[in-house]
Amino acid sequence: MADDLVAGPDGALRCGWVSSLEDYRDYHDEEWGRPVHGDAALYERVVLEGFQSGLSWLTILRKRPAFRAAFAGFDPEAVAAFDDADVTRLLGDAGIVRHRRKIEAAITNARATMRLLDRDGAGGLDALVWSHAPVDPGSGPTRLADLPAQTPASRALAQALKAEGFVFVGPTTAYATMQACGVVNDHLVGCAYRDGGEHRPRSQHRLG
Q: Which of 51, 125, 142, 158 is 20 to 30 Å from 73 at the Cα level?
């Protein structure tokens, strides 16, 4: 389909879900599908993908600086210590998505992340997430229609996260996290950024 790949203002072909908005373009070019490591960074992605559920990803991108401020830079140790007063504070913060279950899930998931870090030999959230990377990633998707909402691997990851005490991590959220962290590379074949793309300056929107 003609919309599977679209040319940006620089002439480079990108995955067709990228709109003309700079927020989406920067996220696609600089973050999405790029390998992410580190427990705090992976915790951040899990939390943001959970908050995105039912909303536009653009909403999350534009609120991300406020999310980082509200959740102590997504330091899981700091967030794990949040209490009822922090929940009340967050519910009053117009800069983030004020959804009680998602806020409470972020705190619960910080505590689960810390338990993984504290457990001898567990390897932390990083090891858990990356243990679900495909052994054979294949040649890559060629159409937007090839991109699944969930996969057997994301269902296994969701189950593994829940077994460790994580919440609000269904298989669709787990797959979105895998895409965001580069556990899977779902840039379409022919996308200029599938294999890293050209060098671009860091954007103020960048996560890592």
A: 158
17 labelled catalytic? no
Domain of 71, in residue numbers: 37-131+141-180
**Number of compact structural domains in the chain:** 1
Inter-residue contact 91 to 100 (CB < 8 Å): yes
Please choose, from the candidates 53, 51, 194, 54, the residue with its C-alpha nearest in 3D space to the C-alpha of residue 109: 51
Q: What is the pLDDT of residues 135-172, one digit of tens each?
A: 888 889 999 999 999 999 999 999 999 999 999 999 99
Distance between CA atoms of residues 80 and 78, nearest Å: 5
Q: Is 26 part of any domain? A: no
- Which one is catalytic: 24, 27, 32, 193? 27
- CATH of residue 159's domain is 1.10.340.30
Of the listed 30, 31, 44, 49, which one is catalytic? 49
77 counts as catalytic: no
Examine residue 14 and state whether it is found in any structural domain, yes or no: no
Q: How far apart are CA 94 and CA 133, in angstroms?
A: 36
Is-catalytic flag, 43?
no
Q: Say how many C-beta atoms besides its own lie within 10 A of residue 84's C-beta.
A: 8
